[in-house]
Write a structure and sequence with these properties.
Strand content: 5-15%
Number of helices: 14
Strand order of the largest sheet: 2-6-4-5
Radius of gyration: 39 Å
Largest sheet: 4 strands, antiparallel
Distance between the termini: 113 Å
Length: about 350
């Protein structure tokens, strides 16, 4: 009778311990642990729960799982390695919408290969399910990014404005399209010798960016400077007023050639700034940089005679630099050229 029981026990265990198996299953590991404890006289019924309670989370991950006694000798199939290659290529993607599209395309291909590997080679339902879910998420992301890039193309003039002014600042085409929508995506034409603004008459109700041509700026009939493409026509006036204030131009702007410009209405632009604070900061940088360029242009026009040029950035420099032997007339010119008495900038 004992012989029959021992034979039946050995027959039951044999299928789980047959030679050539490359790993020990969890059931075998637990059975072996219980047998070892019984040999050493340990009460497994009373100690098993207590041991499980004393183990921390990391100990349960490291100690509580069986260790592979023998690694699988053969390599995985080609589909598994193809999936790894796709993941490597996907992680090499760049930034922006094009970079996102690149990343999600290769990631979806990698998850697709892993999906086939789990179905055909691993035969694991959980691995298949996770890879299928991640593959679907990547496909949804590809559709979303492709929708963001849909037909985001502009006319030649708008594209030049974007490439020269907005793209160097890292502004995406989507944000640029939103900015252009507030000017109705329209370019206005101003014929030669026509006025954009008249001194003391035209109200400040918009912000305009010159796309092509050249604008001549005068005050009381005296020439100040030119405005060239990709410069704002009325940046000093815009910066001098608060959103609730109104004002009129202190200079005259005349088209020196046939010109084309983009105009944003003041109220609509402030509404855009209220909705998107980063666009407000963007325009603040562009407008103040434009004002600085106009100051430099105006500085080249200010002379005090005898080969000296007054620098509006250093209003007191030439008063110190002029020697005492200089005649009184030159000193008087230097004093009269002070920025506090200068004409408007635009």
């Amino acid at each position: 009778m004992l012989t029959i029981l021992s034979c039946s026990a050995s027959c039951d265990v044999a299928p789980y311990t047959k030679p050539g198996a490359w790993h020990i299953s969890r059931i075998q590991y637990r059975e072996k642990a219980v047998q070892d404890k019984r040999k050493h006289g340990v009460n497994t019924a009373s100690n098993s729960p207590a041991m499980g309670e004393n183990l921390t989370f990391w100990e349960s991950l490291i100690v509580g799982h069986p260790v592979c006694s023998k690694w699988k000798p053969e390599a995985e199939g080609s589909i598994y390695h193809l999936a790894s290659v796709m993941f490597i290529l996907g992680y090499m993607g760049g930034s922006g919408y094009s970079g996102l599209l690149y990343v999600f395309i290769f990631m979806s291909l990698g998850f697709l290969c892993s999906l086939f590997w789990a179905w055909l080679d691993a035969c694991a339902a959980d691995v298949f399910s996770w890879n299928f879910a991640l593959f679907v998420i990547c496909i949804v992301q590809i559709i979303h990014v492709a929708y963001q890039l849909r037909n985001i193309s502009f006319d030649k003039e708008f594209q030049e404005v974007y490439n020269s002014l907005f793209q160097p600042l890292g502004i995406s085409l989507t944000v640029f399209g939103k900015i252009m929508s507030y000017c109705n995506a329209e370019v206005i034409t101003l014929e030669k010798e026509h006025c954009y603004a008249m001194q003391g008459k035209t109200s400040i109700d918009k912000l305009s960016l010159l796309v092509s041509g050249r604008i001549r700026v005068t005050v009381d009939g005296e020439f100040l400077h030119y405005i060239f493409p990709l410069q704002f026509l009325d940046s000093p006036e815009w910066d001098s007023l608060r959103p609730s204030e109104e004002g009129i131009f202190q200079v005259t702007l005349i088209a020196d050639t046939d010109c084309r410009y983009i105009a944003w209405r003041r109220k609509k632009l402030y509404l855009l700034f209220a909705k998107h604070r980063y666009i407000s900061r963007l325009f603040s940088i562009l407008i103040r940089s434009d004002i600085a360029d106009k100051l430099y242009a105006l500085n080249d026009k200010v002379h005090v005679g005898k080969g000296l040029r007054f620098d509006i950035r250093l209003p007191n420099f030439y008063h110190v630099a002029v020697p005492d032997s200089t005649d009184h007339h030159l000193k008087e010119k230097l004093h009269n050229s002070s920025p506090r008495q200068s004409t408007p900038l635009l």
